[in-house]
Amino acid sequence: MPSVLGVLERRERVALARAEELRAELERVQAAVLEAEQAVRRAVIAREETVEALAELADEAAVPEVPAGRSVVEPVGGAAVGPRVEVPSWREGLGVDVLPVDCARIVALVERDAAEGGQGVRARRMREDLGWPASDAREQAARFRAKRLAERGWLTEERAGLFRPRTA
Question: Is 101 helix (H, G, I), strand (E, B) or coil?
């Protein structure tokens, strides 16, 4: 018959071995989490760079060639899109008239949606409201403008890709 102390010592060794196995597992899981977080950061940066590049490409594709001494005539419906837009930060007393035309139209659409009790506006609806042709690049351009407006305080992005008027 085994001694009580011998049984307890065996239990202690088993528990210590199990604790060591779990420590090794924990280190492996922590390393995997760190690697996954780095992959997420890289993916976010890649997505942001892609969206910006697509918006710039879409803007360049929409800018007409203008001979010297001539002016650009905006197509019927106001669908002309200019080069990269600069959006000033919102501050008290600043109206949408300081925004580029497309950005002002996006802000107006979002405010109109909120006044009608809407849940927010997504890029597809912005693209449609701006009269832009249906394409992923144009939708990305609209989303990029809305995100820039949100960064500058003109809009808020409550959930990913869902824009609402800025809160007071």
Answer: helix
pLDDT tens, position by position, 150-166:
888 999 888 888 999 98
Which one, of 64, 154, 138, lies nearest residue 100 by Cα? Answer: 154
Q: The whole model's pTM is what?
A: 0.51
pLDDT tens string 101-150? 889 999 999 999 999 998 899 999 999 999 988 888 888 889 989 999 98
Residue of 103, 102, 101 lying closest to 149 (CA atoms): 103
CB-based contacts of 109: which residues, under 8 Å, 6+ apart? Answer: 121, 125, 126, 129
Q: Is 111 exposed, middle or buried (0-12, 13-18, 19+ CB in 10 A)?
A: middle
Please tell me the distance from the alpha carbon of residue 168 to that of residue 139, in angstroms, as a whole number: 28
Residues 58-73 have pLDDT tens digits of 666 554 554 554 444 4
Kindly provide the b/e burial profile for residues 7-35, where b requires at least 16 CB atoms within 10 angstroms of the residue's own CB. Answer: eeeeeeeeeeeeeeeeeeeeeeeeeeeee
The CA-atom distances, in angstroms, between 105 and each of 19, 87, 92, 109, 112 are 62, 13, 20, 6, 10
